[in-house]
Amino acid sequence: MPESAQFKKNAQRQLNNTGLQANLQRFGQRFAKARAIAIAELEDFSGLRQRATAWRDLTLANLDDWLIRFETHAQRMGTQVHWATTAAEVNQIVLEIAHKNKVRKVIKSKSMVSEETGLNAALQQSGIDTIETDLGEYILQLAGEPPSHLVAPALHKNVEEVADLFQEHHHTPRQTDIPTLCREARHQLRPHFLSADMGISGGNFLVADTGALVLLTNEGNARLVTTLPRVHVAITGIEKVIPSLDALAPLLRLLPRSATGQSITNDVSLLTGPRRPGDLEGPEEHHVILVDGGRSELLGSELQPALRCIRCGACMNHCPVYQNIGGHAYGWVYPGPIGAVLTPAYLGLEHARDLPQAATLCGACEVVCPVSIPLPDLLRVWRQRSVSRGLRPWPERVLLRLWLWCAMHPLLYRWIHRRLSWLLRQLANDSGQITYFPGLTDWTQGRNLKAPDQPPFHAQWAQRHRS
Amino acid sequence: MKIGLWITCLVDLMRPRIGFATLNLVRATGHSIEIPEQQTCCGQPGFNSGDTSAGRAMAMQFLKHFESFDAVVLASGSCAAMIRHDYPRLFANQPEYQVRFQELGQRTFELSEFLLRHPFDLPPTTQRFSGRLTYHDSCSGLRTLGIRSGPRQLLQRIPGVEIVEMPDREVCCGFGGAFSVKLGDIATRMAENKCRSILATGVDAVVGGDLGCLLTIEGRLRREGHSLPVWHWAEVLAGTVT
Amino acid sequence: MMTSRDLILARIRQRRGTTSSPPDNTPLAGTSGQNLHPIDATERIKLFQRQALAMGCQLRPCSSRDMVLPTLQALLNDLPGHSRVAWPQLRRWLESTSLGCRFGSAHSTDQIGITGCAGAIAETGSLILTTGPDTPDSVSLLPEIHIALVCHDDIVVDLEAAWKHLAQRADWPPRGVTLVSGPSRTADIEQQVVIGAHGPAQVIILLYPG
């Protein structure tokens, strides 16, 4: 059973993990505050957001056509385009390309889709040395852990943990100065960049009109991964296609700002095909794998807006639940509000039944989403599906039915409120506080409940009117 | 103008005083008020748990008892948001009802929205609170209805009230309806964070506009041993607390 | 047998509920959501300088094109690193001097890379670099220090103008277009920003009038 099925237990564990809590606290509102400043600098954020949303919707409405258009242009420029329905198929395609090119070493820049497919394990099992090059991903590869954030994958680790990992794996003296550690990673990884046979990247966007793959990075690693090795394979979801560079401009303005508060990432690369005649460098083969993996199922459904997602991470940066439990509690590739929507879609609701419940529906995520994904509504859609498929625990189902029945019968409702009011007063201590309530221990374990000190409003009102 | 007063189910059961404070404030605007006997709950517990049919059933009940009023007033941002924002969406497939819900939604006001539109004098009272307050922004009211400055403006009409803003003031307190009893650990931690922000202000009391949040904040403060008063802002404005 | 391609397209069409229609983006074409007011060349250059500085670039304005070589020479004298590589495209301009640089693609031992650019964007402070036989990407990527020669006339106002500028090229679309905005960086350890990750740690722009 995937970890995502154990949400409540995972969350409890993370809440009691003091190391993680300190790291989350440090992360805190940092990205949120940086974003607020960067967004305020825009002349018209809401207009820009509307445009970006409209572009994403326009693409999703004719996704098949835009994909074909991308494929046509990409092939014309010499890119080999592959289609994969499942995670297993993605890995199979990558392995075939690797074997055909006698690849022994792979360097990777960040690809969340490859996390979906467990690609690194598949490559390693085939005896292909695979090295992550994004610093955060590299740290996690050494630690043998999955990312816990879309943009800052290793935010759950502190410098001491990184120092230990580097000392252990690099056999170098232990350093705890962050710039020194970054230099060390550069020196460790540079030889791999130069000796790798194949580079694997994700894809932030696919431009249908030109056949270009768009990559955004700050570290420069994506440029190295896509320039130096003989073969470049990009793995990306079918929803990442956009019609044209016209669409790219507003999305480029929003993605880095929403993610880290940068006006643009240090590198934005548009890659079209393999090396050309006369070129001194660049891959001899350029592959793009278009991955479905459950995405097409969302089209035409109430959940379709989730496919607008451009993976900026703003929703989790602003989610009070995420900020208290971190990304691993969600148990799969995508954490936070968008993860709570996508995980049940891609793994099946029965494997992630608590994720849609993991939100107060406070709406902070929806407000900051650069492509206006109505995340609380989408969480509610999953809650509806949980109810209609009978996936909620029976006490909850019984209580809900009972509540509805009473609420539909006002006289009964009044009577129950009077009895409940009385009962609550009986349960209270001398200062009117309830500290234990059978069946409601999820509340009383961490919060008191002050009992009412009067009969219900309507009871009092009715009495006044009678007298 | 004939006003229908909606008493939220939480206020009815847990804090009837808020209901009476609301009643006094609406009365102070001089309009005539009715409190329909048949009202129960707006349906959020069902709707947010994924029981759409329950949401629709409660919406129909609301329509039946409140459609005849010129305005509906209630002291909760989240219930007002449910009525104004979610009811019409629940009837997307029944345009004739959707229109009726939209119209009724436009006539439904969270208390601060109503009081800002209708002149009133503060109800007379012997002792009104004066001191430093911090105001907790409840999420639905804040983000769905845009209630932000209204309650603050109203509270500042009271001589001697100073509002001190808390850090991270727009971060959720962790109530979230059923969330607070399904995922108690996370809810508790969120409440703990919120209480830390509140206590950092050094105020004399904390106020808010949604009882769910207030019960959460009060429950956590008391569990931690703090006696800081927690009120609905309507109680302060109506002069029923000091 | 149905290929994965057929299967995915069939699923999309089924979920979409309509038969295929030609894609059309005319309703949104040309709308960017950013209204940078038309600005003149002077303002454009100023904006570029401001944004490039904000992204962490260093600027060395030159009073004329003739001043570029002396400025570059002085700069190289001050910088550590004797292994220098430059774009073949710059050969005719730089070869006559005693800069001591190689022309071609970069080696891992090169410490300084010198490039021109295909354009620059005022809105974002970005250099536009395109790949080609005379403009290898590695020169701006492998060395620790990247020096770029940027002419005032190369600067366009915003991303849309950059696309238009690029689309006029004979080789459009080139294999690679990279918008480089400042030195590479990472914040992956405790969100502390460290300049100089896998790419250059310094980007120095020599800006000269046309």
Concise description?
Chain A is of the alpha/beta class and 467 residues long. Chain A contains 23 helices and twelve strands. Chain A starts with 6 loop residues before the first helix and ends with a helix.
Structural class of chain C: alpha/beta
- Give the DSSP E fraction of chain B (strand runs of 2 or more residues): 5-15%
Outline of chain B: globular
Q: What's the structural domain tally of chain C?
A: 1
SSE topology string of chain C: HHEHEHEEEEEEHEEEE
* CATH architecture assignment name of the largest domain in chain B: 3-Layer(aba) Sandwich
Query: How would you name the oligomeric state of the polypeptide chains in this document?
Result: heterotrimer
Mean pLDDT of chain C, as a whole number?
Answer: 91
Number of strands of chain C: 12
- pLDDT average of chain B, as an integer? 96
Q: Fill in the CATH topology of chain C.
A: Rossmann fold
Number of strands of chain B: 8
Question: Helix content range of the residues of chain B, please?
Answer: 40-55%
Strand order of the biggest β-sheet of chain C: 1-12-7-4-2-3
Q: What's the SSE pattern of chain B?
A: EHHEHHEHHEHEHHEHHEHEH
Report the C-alpha radius of gyration of chain C, rounded. Answer: 21 Å
Tell me what the structure shows.
The complex is a heterotrimer of chains A (467), B (242) and C (210). In chain A, α3 (30-40) crosses α13 (245-260), α10 (159-170) crosses α11 and α17 runs parallel beside α19. Chain A has 23 helices and twelve strands. Chain A has 467 residues and is an alpha/beta fold. Chain A folds into three domains: 42-293, Rossmann fold (3-Layer(aba) Sandwich); 305-388, Fumarate Reductase Iron-sulfur Protein, Chain B, domain 2; 394-466, no CATH class. By secondary structure, chain B is α/β, with parallel strands linked by helices. Helix content of chain B is 52%, strand content 13%. The longest helix of chain B is centred in the C-terminal third of the chain and has 17 residues, at 184-200. Chain B is globular and about 50 Å long. Chain C is α/β, with parallel strands linked by helices. Chain C has one domain (39-182, 195-208): Rossmann fold (3-Layer(aba) Sandwich), CATH 3.40.50.10420. In chain C, 24% of the residues lie in helices and 22% in strands. The N and C termini of chain C lie far apart (61 Å). Chains in contact: A-B, A-C. Chains A and C meet through α2, α4, α5, β1 and α9 of A and α1, α5, β9 and β10 of C. β9 (267-271) of chain A pairs antiparallel with β9 of chain C.
